[in-house]
Design brief:
Layout (H helix, E strand, L loop, with lengths): L4 E2 L6 E2 L22 E10 L6 E3 L4 H19 L5 E2 L8 E5 L8 E5 L3 E5 L2 H16 L3 E9 L5 E7 L7 H13 L4 E5 L1 E2 L2 E2 L17 H13 L3 E8 L4 H4 L6 E3 L5 E6 L4 H14 L7 E5 L11 H11 L6 H17 L3 E5 L17 E4 L7 H6 L4 E3 L2 H4 E3 L7 H6 L20 E7 L8 H7 L1 H12 L8 H11 L10
Parallel strand pairs: 4-5, 4-6, 6-8, 10-11, 10-22, 11-14, 14-17, 17-18, 18-19, 19-20, 21-22
Antiparallel strand pairs: 1-2, 3-9, 7-8, 7-9, 12-13, 15-16
Helix pairs in contact: 1-2, 3-4, 6-8, 7-8
């Protein structure tokens, strides 16, 4: 193990970078997810009334926001003010600094008379503060030693189906903080579906549901997520699941050859469909600063033969060999062009992508969220050039009034590289990671509080699996007790 050397700020350590070799380990402090590596040393750190958050002056600009947030969370935990300072550290202080190499979300924590958290980037330092919060939740002492910690997967998080069930701003805020407490970094907002469109619109106010987020509320949620190093992925689902949008636009509902309209489907043979879609997407893209836009693109048309206008459109735009399915593929690529022009990456669900059913294919730059074994396998998607994410129904789907995750199997057996039906991939670096998915097919089946309680342990098992550190205990029953000791984020309403 490299020798730790002090620098000018007393008690602030230049810590080793995220490693490639394991270190000797003693019983590690208990966190969710568990630490990747721990080397025990004699003694303890004690957090007391005079403990402060000390920011390395050399990195004050980069770490000031995280230090202030850490102090807020410490105050919520301890119920007393915690000072942020750049002064020389003293016993009982917690020091934040930058340095080293390795994963941007990784960090090294050294505990002794002080605690020092160092990361290559501020995100790593932030996750080190989450570790300290969990440890202080269990008592005011932390065992002396050195932890090195980093994630296996770059994307770890939660999706909520706001289209079918409106989630209050307060619920979303609490879960942004809860995600970060578990070192989960992604929140997917499924903002529209057949039963609702949940975001204020100036271009098309007629499509917006009564229960919706104002743009000011959404901006507040996005800003809070950014403070907690959580990326928000917005989704406006199209060209299927569009009842809320198409009920006031019957002229754009897809009709069979016999004239029967279905408000679930957008008629992609009509120019107005592209006008409507582009106006909504272009209105919202500036609101979401994150790197992704999700088009949905799931469950669109089971029998293309019923809609001859889609075949006619495809052949007029993509050539005589085109099929009706090419109208769908062409729409996805058209949205991809809109999104890429704004510097973002498009995402879509996997079920519409099949082999040999069209003359064109979704562009390989699109990230595919794989949820079920329809069409191409995860490996086939990788072979086409896509980056994928493992959003498999089993074990990540929490359905109101329906299936719930097998959290024991998730914790004891499942890994992020195991897709639906046990499929594995040979390019794990192009599997972004995994989220827990709250689908509100029966929106009144559970209250917000029931959902919060229901996803508590699945989120923790998913955090452990996607962080990829050694499991702290073998059995799920023991893990539940382990997770209870780390608790919820300080200030999470109605929970210890």
């Amino acid at each position: 193990m490299p020798i730790l050397r002090s620098f000018a700020l007393a008690a602030v350590m230049v810590l080793p970078s995220i490693p490639g070799q394991p270190v000797t380990a003693g019983p590690p402090p208990q966190t969710v997810p568990a630490l990747q590596e721990w080397k025990a040393e004699p003694g303890n750190y004690t957090f007391g009334p005079g403990s402060r958050v000390v920011v390395d002056p050399a990195h004050a600009a980069e770490l000031a926001a995280d230090a202030a947030l850490f102090a807020e969370d410490l105050q919520a935990l301890t119920r007393r003010p915690v000072t942020v300072t750049r002064e020389k550290a003293r016993a009982g202080d917690i020091v934040l600094t930058l340095g080293g190499s390795g994963d941007a979300e990784g960090y090294t924590m050294r505990s002794g008379s002080t605690v020092t958290i160092q990361g290559r980037a501020s995100t790593g330092v932030f996750y080190g503060t989450r570790t300290v919060l969990q440890l202080l939740k269990q008592g005011n002492t932390i065992p002396a030693g050195t932890a090195r910690d980093w994630p296996e997967k770059p994307e770890r998080g939660l999706m909520i189906d706001q289209g079918r069930k409106f989630f209050s701003v307060d619920w979303v805020k609490r879960h942004i903080r809860e995600l970060a407490y578990l070192k989960l970094n992604t929140f997917h907002f499924h903002l529209s579906d057949s039963q609702g469109f949940r975001l204020e619109s100036t271009s098309h106010p007629e499509v917006v549901s009564a229960q919706r987020y104002t743009k000011a509320e959404m901006a507040e949620l996005i800003a809070l997520a950014a403070r907690y190093h959580v990326t928000v992925i917005p989704e406006i689902d199209m060209p299927g699941h569009m009842n809320a949008v198409l009920t006031p636009h019957p002229e754009l509902q897809l009709r069979t050859a016999g004239g029967t309209a279905d408000p679930y489907y957008l008629d992609l043979s009509k120019e107005g469909a592209y006008v409507l879609a582009s106006e909504l997407i272009n209105e919202y893209l500036p609101l979401f600063p994150g790197p992704y836009w999700h088009v949905g693109a799931d469950e669109y048309v089971l029998n293309y033969g019923q809609y001859p206008q889609l075949l006619e459109y495809a052949r007029s735009h993509y050539g005589a060999e085109a099929t009706a399915k090419d109208t769908y593929y062409g729409f996805v690529n058209w949205v991809n062009d809109l999104v890429r022009a704004q510097g973002k990456t498009l995402r879509m669900w996997n079920d519409g992508i099949k082999n040999g059913d069209g003359a064109i294919e979704p562009h390989p730059s699109i990230v595919v969220d794989y949820w079920f074994s329809f069409g191409l396998s995860p490996q086939q998607l990788l072979d086409r050039g896509h980056v994928i994410a493992n959003q498999s129904w089993t074990p990540t789907y929490y359905v109101l009034g329906g299936q719930k995750p097998d959290t024991q199997w998730m914790y004891e057996t499942w890994r992020p590289g195991r897709f639906e039906d046990g499929q594995l991939v040979t390019m794990p670096s192009r599997n972004r990671g995994t989220m827990l998915h709250v689908w509100c097919d029966n929106p009144d089946a559970e209250t917000e509080d029931q959902i919060a309680a229901g996803i508590r342990y699945p989120l923790r098992a998913l955090a452990q699996g996607t962080w990829g550190s050694p499991k702290p205990v073998a059995s799920y029953a023991d893990f539940v007790a382990f997770a209870d000791r780390a608790g919820r984020v300080p200030g999470f309403q109605g929970s210890s």
